[in-house]
What does this fold into?
Amino acid sequence: MAATAQEIAAAIAAGQRRAVDVLDEHLAAIGARDGELHAFNLVTTEHARADAEAVDRGERPGPLAGVPVALKDNLCTRGIPTTCSSRILEGWRPPYDATVVTRLRDAGAVLVGKTNLDEFAMGSSTENSAFGATRNPHDVTRVPGGSSGGSAAAVAAGFAPVALGSDTGGSIRQPAALCGVVGVKPTYGAVSRYGLIAFASSLDQIGPFTTTVADAALVLEVIAGHDPMDSTSIDGPAPSLLEVLDHGVDGLRVGVVRELLGEGIAPDVRARTEAAAEALAAAGAKVDEASVPAAIYGLSAYYLIAPSEASSNLARYDGVRYGLRVDAANTAEMNTATRTAGFGPEVKRRIMLGTYALSSGYYDAYYGKAQRVRTLIIRDFQAAYEQFDVLLSPTSPTTAFELGAKTADPLSMYMNDVCTIPSNLSGDPAMSVPYGAGADGLPVGVQVMAPALGEPVMFRVAAALERSLA
Amino acid sequence: MSEGMRNGWELVVGLEVHCELATQTKIFCGCRNVFGAPPNTNICPVCLGLPGSLPVLNEEAVHLAMRLGMALGCSVEPSIFHRKNYFYPDMPKDYQVSQYDQPINVDGSIELADGSVVGIERAHLEEDTGKSTHVGGGGRINEAERSLVDYNRAGVPLVEIVSRPDITSAEQAKAYVNELRAILLATGASDAKMEEGSMRVDANVSVRRRGEPLGTRCEIKNLNSVRSLVRAIEYEAERQIDVLQAGERIVQETRHWDEAGGRTRPGRSKEEAEDYRYFPEPDLVPVEPDDAWRQRVRDELPLLPAARRARLATAVPATAGVALVVERGLDELVLDAITAGGDPGRLLTHAEHNVLEAGALTAESFAALSRMEVEGALTATQAKTVLAELVLTGGDPAAIAATHGFEALDESDLASTLDAIIAENPEAFEKLKAGDGKVIGFFTGQVMKATQGKADGKRVAALLQEKAKS
Amino acid sequence: MPEITRDDVAHVARLARLSLTEEELDLFTGQLAAVLDHARDVEALDVADVAPTAHPLPLRNVLRADVPGPSLDRDEVLAAAPAVEDDRFAVPPVLGEEP
It folds into this structure.
């Protein structure tokens, strides 16, 4: 078992290990296996060495000092290519760091590289990357999930104990489940989006991949908290999570969401979810069935809202100021030639879907209506949280599927997000905890959901689930 | 008035005026809001719309927008921002953050100098775009080989003021723009310089036969001065009347004012109308000024031009010169001089005709001067000379008059001088008796020569008329 | 709502500055129609008296002080630009005036 971030940080802080040695170990692991897995778009060896050396000189103290961290390649890193796994941003070096990157640096973290994703975070398998798919470390014929497949695989393969991803419809939690690692989507607004290249602004959140619940708590304590550069950032400090992990679940009310255990859920996944519910009951929780009726409309609302916001967020990729330019006789033709060459088919699909849903005559029926359905979902969650402290569901309907299995039919790919999407729409926090294996021996993840700002209770339950497997 | 206007046609004009707010920094970022800086030196990730950037609203922009709105008689409402989506190279994000159906200021009106009232539909906040220059092929947009974009202006805060279509002549349009500028300057909201682009005017023009419903309108852009505004409206009105009188229909379109050619031209054809796909800006939250903030803004409102005109009008006998005097900023001086015992009629006349700027002129000396005139110690012409010196170097009017050797001629000296001149010019006197008013000037000139300017011109004319009758 | 047509897709592609081949037009029309068809379940919902959610958070009046902050180094920005002339971003000529 690779060392956790907590173990590494403690050992370095105690002078038992050197950051450069920790780094070299991880670089060796990357070198040995990333050729096969393609978790990384870029390994930042020189930067990492400089970071680690500075830690060893005592110049970079902090809770993550010397801990190797991988970053999804849609997080801006100054002077380091940030591509969103798209040809349209190939080679682009941002002139600034994302806030989360600054916070990780300030905590002493060592950045080892930028990880692969579905292009512009649009997808559930990382097969939409313009630079080739990432493979699941548990079975290289299978997908790692998406869109943060590279980050999930990097942690699962031991390339780094911590990786950051982004979650708009499940893009942290679903790959976490498929790769057998912990993945957290915080409350909307808990982690600054400044420097996260936007997909759908009212849904996007950054969060950690780790091998343990405690590591995720540690990272979240570092990256969360108010940011004046993000108007949608919650006005308060990061939550205290490490201190609650051992509090247990005695007397907590756990609701298993009926609507998210429907017929689309594979039997082995359902079995693991039920096992998790039983484990919590055995640990003292009051477990019952919960209902969030409007959750069944989540997929539909999401596939109207997210592409609409994306169609606007991606308009700036026009060949004028940065990134790819394909020249033409006039600006409009240059925009068109650039975007046609630079975007892959899924991105184009979603841009057109979003443009349509916002267009004159259709706004009320599509985008407008979806925003109202969103309100229904929020209300149903609020009602459920009056009866329950946390909610439970599978994270993904199935274990990791084979590369190429769902690429022909976009709709079948979208179905992967049916359990994760509702909490993006509500803005409430949710996390995936690895909970055993499916019938095929592949990892299964269980999703714990909590009300807004309910990270403490969510982590308490996640920690209890983790303990129940030990 | 053009011939068309006389033949039962009415002109209907609405004006859209964009004003750059006088803030230190841009609307969503801390880049400086200054005119004339070297290209692309006041840019940052936010105003350049770099991937991952986010807007944060400038408090002063909201404050000034509220002040301007209140000065325009608007009601200040809770408001949100919307995205207006379209592609253009001077738009860094290829959408403009603006306000759509929930703007900050609605339903106001302004009273013009001539007493007419023009309704204000709304005055909302939005961000400015960058600026393109067109290179090659003579510098005109339709012959350019390439365009060069400077984003210094991108993100400067704008208030767009939309009038109701209450304007019925080009002259009234001019008066509206002048009044608006005066209000902008009085409130400090903007420096309103059309030549620097901090105030830009577009005109919506339509015509109709008296009693008929509103005609189809055309939007006229590229009006770089008030003079262009007047010429363009007059041209466009004629053009539309010609079209309608020929039995054809007006095409609703955007037209550009061609200053050199003295005509409006259709905008170059686009394949289809723009669909802006407005939706609420997800990266910003609503603005709801509380009562305390509103009161602070109200307390800061200066005395506006219309109120100053009203105030001056109640203190002086004639209203003809009031607007001009207020425009020149001399109303307070006149009012203070009246308080100091000056003659309102003389003071107003001087302020209207003989003083551009107060300079060294004080209320006390101004008052004293006017009293010397009404007491007959100075003629109007002599007073003008003294006044000019008071403005230039200050001093005491009586002392200055003495230095010049001014004293009004007494009545009997005047009569005898006049008699002498009449005796020398019998033919002219016959002409006067026959009703030829032009010879008055001749006689007056002769009297002035004979008395070294000490005669009062009006008195001479009056005496002449008496003698002509007798 | 009516089903999305090939013409609709061609229209939104133009609005979004994307050019599609004939085959792509057919393919995308079918795929988009399938997604929108799936979204028909929300069509039946009566949400007329439900307010839309633009933000999951109840934040209001998030403002910054009107104080200058650092700007970017022009050279760093222009270095990333596809074409530069006279310290400005160069683009092919624009057809049509700003809307």
Chain B touches chain C through 64 residues (CB under 8 Å). Residues 321-404 of chain B form one domain. The longest helix of chain B spans residues 226-245. The mean pLDDT of chain B is 91.
